């Protein structure tokens, strides 16, 4: 199965730093990196990463950002997923045709 999870950053030498499902941001906001592992090569050249905030009134789409990917790879990072509010968030990676590849949930709190 495909897996989406979160780290503080993905370093230039390929290290996942600070994997967690809870992160702290400063008052003016902060960002994390989402990591995607697919069970087979992804087979497309770009994906959309959607950020949704869960609330009592349902889910609010905060942002959807396109990222270029290599079709023959099965391990990806999507950096600078940015948060300005605390809360529970869901991040989903979609193919351009709307097929979801994977999603994960993350909790954001202020420092």
Note down, in words, how this protein is organized.
- This protein is mainly β and 111 residues long.
- The protein has strands at residues 3-7, 9-10, 16-17, 22-25, 30-37, 46-55, 58-68, 75-83, 87-95, 100-110.
- The chain has a 5-stranded mixed β-sheet with strand order 4-10-9-6-7, with no helix packed on it. Strands 1-5-8 form a 3-stranded antiparallel β-sheet, with no helix packed on it.
- Strand 2 (9-10) and strand 3 (16-17) form a beta hairpin.
- The mean pLDDT is 97.
Brief overview:
The protein is mainly β and 111 residues long. The protein has strands at residues 3-7, 9-10, 16-17, 22-25, 30-37, 46-55, 58-68, 75-83, 87-95, 100-110.
Number of H/I helices: 0
Rg, please? 14 Å
Helix share bin? under 10%
Strand order of the largest sheet: 4-10-9-6-7
Order of helices and strands: EEEEEEEEEE
Mean pLDDT, rounded to whole units? 97
Given helix and strand content, the structural type is mainly beta
| Total beta strand runs | 10
As a percent range, the share of strand residues is over 45%
Shape type: globular
Q: Between the first and last Cα atoms, what is the distance in angstroms?
A: 34 Å
Largest sheet: 5 strands, mixed
Unreliable spans are: none
């Amino acid at each position: 199965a495909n897996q989406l999870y979160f780290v503080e950053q993905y370093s230039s030498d390929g290290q996942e730093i600070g994997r967690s499902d809870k992160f702290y941001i400063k008052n003016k906001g902060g960002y994390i990196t989402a990591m995607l592992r697919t069970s087979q090569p992804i087979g497309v050249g770009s994906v959309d990463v959607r950020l949704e905030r869960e609330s009592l009134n349902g889910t609010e789409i905060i942002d959807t950002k396109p990222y270029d990917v290599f079709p023959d790879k099965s391990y990806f990072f999507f950096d600078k997923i940015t948060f300005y509010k605390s809360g529970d968030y869901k991040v989903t990676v979609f193919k351009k045709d709307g097929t979801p590849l994977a999603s994960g949930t993350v909790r954001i709190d202020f420092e």
